[in-house]
Amino acid sequence: MGQAVALRVRRSQAQRTASTRARLLDATLECLCDLGYARTTTPEIARRAGLSRGAQLHHFPTKAELVTSALEHLFARRHREFREAFARVPAGADRYAAAIDILWTMVSGPTFHAWLELAVASRTDPELRRDVQQLTETLRTLVLDTFHELFGPARTDQPFFEIAPHFIFALLDGLALERIAGTDPDQLGRVLATAKALARLVMPQEEKPS
User: Fold this and answer.
1) Cα angle at 87 between 205 and 196, to 5 degrees?
2) How far apart are CA 5 and CA 170, in angstroms?
3) I want to staple 23 with a disulfide (CB 3.0 to 4.6 A). Which of 49, 107, 165, 203 is the partner?
4) Tens of each residue's pLDDT in the chain, 210 residues
């Protein structure tokens, strides 16, 4: 009986810790999107999370750790959402085009805005730059592993295949910047359509289900 009670207590404490951290991370992302990095402060994050300043410092001692952890939290969520959405792509559909469409819906909104705030701020902040570079490397590995899991291993006879994820993300990041600058959505759509056409030309053709 004592062991069961202790297990429930530990589980409850772990759940409370996870809930507190999630509230802080979500509040951080909200601040980055609403206020930008420069005006995002840890007291404001704690206020929006409904937590004390001491609770925030206990879980994330520095602003750099908090904002990069928040972004990692967001990308993990987006990664799950991408996998779930891609699993719903109908058999026989153009999976390269579907992947581009799903990624664009995720890249062109708050996810990109939060990432942009940190990327720009990290240029002149050595501590933040170190954390952002480490996060970028982790995400790059995750993206490449997911790409090969969904579309197959690297192929020496298809040189574009290996750089395709980097190419597409660079393209989508550029389009997301243009969207912020007010570029005509129809023009952005034409660029996306061209990217899909290029994928059909240069990427390995997937076998159609029999």
Assistant:
1) 40
2) 52
3) 49
4) 555 545 555 557 788 888 899 999 999 999 999 999 999 999 999 999 999 999 999 999 999 899 999 988 888 888 888 999 999 999 889 999 999 999 998 887 888 888 889 889 999 988 889 888 988 888 888 888 899 888 888 777 777 888 899 999 999 999 999 999 999 999 999 999 999 999 888 887 765 544
The predicted model scores a pTM of 0.79
Q: What angle do CA 136, 140, 144 make, to 5 degrees?
A: 175
Of 53, 31, 203, 189, the closest CA to residue 110 belongs to 31
In sequence order, the 6+-apart residues with CB closer than 8 A to the CB of 138 are 72
> How many Å apart are CA 72 and CA 159, to the nearest integer?
30
Structure tokens of 157? 């006879």
DSSP 157: T
Q: What angle do CA 65, 120, 130 make, to 5 degrees?
A: 40
Is residue 28 within 8 A of residue 67, CB to CB? The reply is yes
Query: Cβ-count burial of 91 within 10 angstroms (0-12 exposed, 13-18 middle, 19+ buried)?
Result: exposed
